[in-house]
């Protein structure tokens, strides 16, 4: 028997013509797997993210609307600050001839739900037979405007097919929503204005952010707009109106628009609730809003990132899906905000930013939209006070960046307790917030990478140098002297299945890199901008630090490849027990291992959660030989569960480097299906930001072969066998290049007024301003 | 076409033999009307109340478990303290051969859900065909133990009928529950003990009450207990286990017990979480628990209150239903707690106590179980500090009892904002907390009524006199001098559709009564217990007050019957506009009027929400002639919407007094169907405590004709035409009388060792100790 959950519910090939590889379609309604589509089809504009829960409610839905940067901490030891779930404005409860419209009742004669990536619009068409046998056609659409970031627009068209329709709609604003039971809002004023606009105010309990939610409705019957009978209804944290239009004739279509807006006191242009209302009051209707929204997507997104893959339709869709979510998750409007590990698509990871931003997502922006990349790095700069506090609390110096980061001054916000330990029956302690320290070097790395790609001297002078120095100040204070060398003990590396390890290779190398870069730029500024250096010196005591950097960096222990060329992941990893991981690698469920072992036990085995040594080999690629890379791949990959969505993209890029196109492509295939694939559970708490950034990296850095090494641009494409062409844009020192790779040719169009130097397949070339270079 | 909601879903006649008129049965599953059965079938033991939400979850369910007295106030201006919704322990998510058990899916071949009042046990039997065509029988039972007040016991038996069954159960403790979006708990420790007992701790945010929730499971296959494969799972505010037993053969029955316990630091015997765990660990299995529970109901409830009605089966069921809920809603174990206006069956009225307790519910206990009545009055005594504070805040003296009352020291807890004003679009201000002041006299009245019925001198000396005096101190300070008399302006009377009225008759008469009783008992104590009077005098300055009582009481304006014998409800009522209320009286929905008028408009019309002058005529019945009563009935009843559940019972009793048996019975029929009837919406936020107390009053005080007037017991039955017999117990001055009324005879059995004096149908008689008196 084929069970519901076995059916491939998502289709990728419904788009044709202009919409070819732009549509993702859910082809059957399943009340058990709502979370998948809520997250994967979520709508967003960087200001807010809206899970695609349906207009009608189901018991297993998780409705969610998250406004970037509006963090709040609930009462209690177990809480950390998180993005609160704003009031729900998408519910529209329909009663059709006395019967509740609900897909669990009656019969679904036709159904699909489609995310149109091109227009960033969600639609749902249903032919429904009610329990009593009446038939209706319903067509729902909605979008979250990229043009007016406060606006959610919805429309539903209903056509009764069997007989005339007496319709009742109950719709409004519901502030009873929580974050898995945690209520972040004090209830505020409810109000109906002019029998038209409903308002719900709410105020976060601790961070005192004001939220103003508005919604209004418009009814159209066969092109005529009208006002139906309506009754206002206020309940706790809730304002709804019941609309009861006159009877709709059989085969006529009634259309209902619901336009909603959310404004908060975190908005840079916030004045007060009344000005927000005044702004909302001028918002036009669905179709007008949609035109502006669609134009914004065309102009700002798809023309900005014209990434094309030919040969495999799914892959073209996947890269568009990545760009779609990279756009929706990124608060490009405000440098006080960063990207959550689940974007704005769910409660997972509480909206916190991790190293995921710098190592997995930022390369997309650094390469494709440097302005946004700069803002994201400015966020880290603005977060320095919290990082300094964290360092001081741990008896270190400089800026020790939090493992998880929320609002600027929050500092460390990683929760302390996690999932159940199956052996002891107690919650597992999460050590990352205490000892996963490599993020401080990862941020420095991203700053440098941004600088090398963009040459943005203004950024460096205002923010970049200080970030490089402040992080290096941390590292010198962090190093521990051990006879003739320095080391870093008691950390968690990228492999979070190993806690309290000594000399994690990734951490030590990255710290060393960070110190060396600080020394380099100290020397440089001493020559080129002594005034700036002086200013920074007085703030960070750089003279003293410079001496310590020099002394300690050269003596920092960097684990070297052993006789088999394997770099020890940490001091003890290679001496631990090895078990056969095949059953867990094949399990459909991430974390399958922990149904049989607890973390203490896994700590004692050669089991790696995700790329650890491998990410080192990728980031600092020119410090290791191809032989070392191959040996480490062969050693570590079989011991790696890829239990983090960050893992496979890195492995794919390395496989490309190692010349194994098939392996690279097979890793990409898995990586690109983490959210977009048929696993109906893994995305419930939200899409995987880093994985989505990783998809882009595999395409551009892996198959496209784009690299920056020592400040120079390299291009060495490795097109997968199945692909016939790949096109993508990159920025280099302010110049925009459009790169087009086929089986036979590489075409590089320089659209800027400057010549660009790069190394193409090992040969240095220069692409002149406003020309196209073609290599056959 | 017959719609779902039109069907008479509840049946009352399914019980036969021993269970005749003991069962209420829901005969069809309707996902739209879950709230009705959740509340009306709710289980309770006075310590906690559990809404009867199903084991599997539905989108329109409202799960609820309320522990008496555990009030907490959330942050924000709009919040008042309320009974928090404890963690849900009743969920049991079943997957049968890979399909989720959900009645909205597949086909229901047979279904009923039954509340057995006698055993206070809820059961549900289902024959279900899954979407893929497999058939199963499921039988669920549960109860909230009257023997061990912390315990909820559940059992489910599952029999696969088509093929072998692979079962998955996901079950545990879910603390993500809120009160309509408000989260009252800080998250506490989660823990699994011995792979068996799951624990979830939680702590109220403001009142700092610790909650410990425990649950455990037991599996039996064809009488053999076994431990299935299980996996623990912790999430935020949630601890669950997935159980996966070996395959169950076709036609075999697997039984799963889930035993849960809740303990809080408000418990008098609370020590800490560990002692609570130790206590929970000793709890026996379902069947053993059930024997003790059943015995407690037989002995403590049904033998204590053997109320019998013969002639109309529904009425017998209705009075048992009343006793069932009066038991479940009343925290008889702790005099620091009172009865919520919705008992413990829902969030409605936030668990607060109103005058509903003293005027509508307390007579049942005063008459039938004086020990509990005393405890409920002790609650008011212990609440005096909050009442004194309220008086002081309003520039009055003495004890001004809060309109809504929660924990002892809370004082006034009435929310300030209510439903939407349909004209202005703003929330309506609730004035009751400010100016509905009659409750202070109502409490004094109940104290006196209790004293008269019981002769409990100990209570009077410890609490009663002080309550009478403290309330009278308030009233003398409240009276306003107006030339030659005193008056009370700017109040809300029982008719809450009239705000800011002057000289509400009920309020003035009751205040006057309160003052007169204080004078009376002052005089009495001066003679009989001067030491006590002295102690109370020094506390309440009674010498001064006594003089003021005497002066002001005699001059307090008491609205007199006009030329048509109508007592003006207040100074302006009779001059207001009269409209035809027929459409609103016939509307199925309470509050139908407010879909067309706002409260300001209703304020200007002769429209009464509920018994106002009528309740005065009932409580102080011997101050008014039958002619005045009749004239006022005829005037006010047509203007009364009975929009409060308190209204009809009072009207029925008055109709009995006025000799209109048919009208009395017709009012009773409506009153007894407020919760128990077929209206599938009106009980959603909880059953109506006062209405349920009112049902008992109609039966015993109305049809049974039991009255206490001036300290004497009167009996004057008015059996409805359809009834052939009525039996009920009452206590009088510590003696228990069992009264049995038929068409022809009245039989009174005195089971005590004291003679009892009473006036039977106008004749004074004496019933000798341990004898039965029969009047043919």
From TrEMBL, chains A, B:
Residues covered by the Glycoside hydrolase family 65 N-terminal domain: 25-266
A GO term for molecular function: carbohydrate binding
Active site per UniProt: 496 (proton donor)
Single biological process term from Gene Ontology: carbohydrate metabolic process
List of residues binding substrate: 355-356, 609-610
Any Pfam family the entry gives: Glyco_hydro_65N
Domain Glycoside hydrolase family 65 C-terminal: 707-765
Residues annotated as domain Glycoside hydrolase family 65 central catalytic: 320-697
Annotated transmembrane regions: none
Keywords: Glycosyltransferase, Transferase
InterPro entries: 6-hairpin_glycosidase_sf (IPR008928), 6hp_glycosidase-like_sf (IPR012341), Gal_mutarotase_sf_dom (IPR011013), GH65_N (IPR037018), Glyco_hydro_65_C (IPR005194), Glyco_hydro_65_M (IPR005195), Glyco_hydro_65_N (IPR005196), Malt_Pase/Glycosyl_Hdrlase (IPR017045)
Record flagged with keyword Transferase: yes
Family named by the database record: Belongs to the glycosyl hydrolase 65 family.
Name assigned to this protein: Trehalase
Provenance organism: Listeria weihenstephanensis
């Amino acid at each position: 028997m084929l069970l519901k959950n076995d059916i491939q519910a998502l289709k990728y090939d419904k788009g044709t013509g202009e919409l070819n590889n732009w549509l993702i379609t859910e082809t059957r309604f399943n009340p058990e797997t709502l979370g998948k589509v809520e997250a994967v089809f979520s709508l967003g504009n960087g200001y807010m993210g809206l899970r695609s829960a349906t207009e009608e409610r189901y018991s297993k839905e998780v409705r969610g609307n998250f406004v970037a940067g509006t963090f709040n901490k609930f009462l209690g030891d177990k809480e950390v600050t998180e993005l609160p779930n704003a009031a729900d404005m998408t519910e529209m409860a329909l009663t059709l001839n006395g019967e509740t419209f609900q897909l669990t009742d009656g019969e679904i004669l036709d159904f699909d739900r489609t995310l149109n990536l091109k227009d960033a619009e969600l639609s749902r068409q249903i032919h429904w037979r009610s329990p009593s046998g009446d038939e209706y056609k319903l067509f729902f659409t909605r979008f979250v405007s990229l043009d007016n970031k406060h606006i959610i627009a919805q429309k539903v068209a209903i056509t009764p097919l069997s007989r005339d329709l007496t319709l009742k709609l109950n719709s409004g604003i519901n502030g009873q929503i929580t974050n898995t039971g945690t209520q972040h809002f004090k209830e505020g004023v409810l109000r109906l204005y002019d029998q038209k606009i409903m308002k719900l105010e709410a105020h976060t309990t601790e961070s005192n952010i004001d939220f103003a939610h508005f919604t209004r409705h418009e009814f159209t019957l066969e092109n005529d707009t009208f006002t139906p009978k309506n009754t206002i209804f206020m309940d706790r944290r809730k304002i709804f109106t019941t609309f009861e239009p006159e009877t709709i004739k059989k085969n006529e279509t009634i259309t209902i628009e619901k336009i909603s807006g959310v404004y908060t006191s975190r908005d840079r242009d916030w004045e007060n609730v009344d000005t927000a209302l005044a702004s909302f009051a001028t918002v036009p209707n669905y179709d007008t809003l949609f035109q502006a929204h669609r134009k914004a997507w065309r102009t700002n997104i798809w023309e900005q990132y014209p990434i094309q893959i030919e040969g495999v339709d799914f892959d073209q869709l996947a890269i568009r899906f990545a760009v779609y979510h990279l756009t929706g998750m990124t608060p490009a409007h405000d440098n006080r905000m960063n990207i959550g590990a689940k974007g704005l698509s769910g409660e997972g990871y509480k909206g916190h930013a991790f190293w995921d931003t710098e190592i997995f997502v930022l390369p997309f922006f650094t390469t494709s939209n440097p302005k946004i990349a700069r803002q994201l790095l400015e966020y880290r700069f603005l977060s320095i006070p919290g990082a300094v506090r964290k360092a001081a609390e741990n008896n270190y110096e400089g800026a020790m960046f939090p493992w998880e980061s929320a609002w600027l001054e929050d500092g460390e916000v990683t929760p302390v307790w996690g999932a159940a330990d199956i052996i002891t029956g107690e919650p597992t302690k999460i050590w990352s917030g205490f000892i996963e320290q490599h993020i401080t070097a990862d941020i420095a790395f991203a700053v440098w990478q941004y600088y090398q790609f963009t040459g943005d001297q203004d950024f460096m002078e205002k923010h970049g140098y200080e970030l490089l120095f402040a992080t290096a100040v941390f590292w010198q204070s962090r190093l521990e002297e051990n006879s003739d060398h320095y080391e870093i003990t008691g950390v968690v590396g990228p492999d979070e299945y190993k806690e309290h390890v000594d000399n994690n290779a990734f951490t030590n190398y990255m710290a060393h890199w960070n110190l060396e870069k600080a020394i380099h730029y100290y020397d440089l500024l001493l020559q080129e901008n002594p005034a700036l250096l002086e200013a920074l010196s007085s703030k960070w005591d750089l003279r003293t630090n410079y001496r310590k950097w020099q002394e300690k960096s050269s003596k920092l222990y960097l684990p070297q490849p052993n006789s088999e060329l394997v770099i020890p992941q940490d001091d003890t990893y290679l001496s631990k027990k090895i078990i056969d991981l095949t059953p867990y690698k094949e399990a459909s469920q991430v974390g399958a291992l922990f149904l049989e072992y607890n973390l203490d036990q896994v700590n004692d085995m050669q089991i790696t959660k995700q790329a650890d040594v491998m990410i080192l080999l990728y980031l600092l690629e020119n410090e290791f030989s191809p032989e070392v890379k191959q040996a480490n791949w062969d050693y570590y990959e079989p011991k790696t569960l890829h239990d983090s969505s960050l893992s496979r993209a890195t492995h794919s890029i390395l496989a490309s480097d190692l010349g194994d196109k098939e392996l690279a492509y097979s890793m990409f295939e898995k990586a690109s299906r983490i959210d977009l694939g048929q696993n109906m559970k893994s995305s419930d708490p939200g899409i995987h930001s880093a994985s989505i950034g990783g998809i882009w990296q595999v395409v551009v850095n892996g198959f496209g072969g784009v690299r920056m090494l020592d400040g120079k641009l390299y291009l060495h494409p490795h097109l997968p066998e199945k692909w016939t062409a790949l096109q993508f844009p990159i920025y280099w020192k302010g110049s925009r290049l459009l790169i087009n790779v086929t089986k036979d040719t590489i075409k590089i169009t320089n659209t800027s007024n400057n010549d660009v130097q790069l190394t193409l397949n090992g040969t240095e070339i220069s692409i002149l301003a406003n020309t196209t270079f073609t290599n056959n």
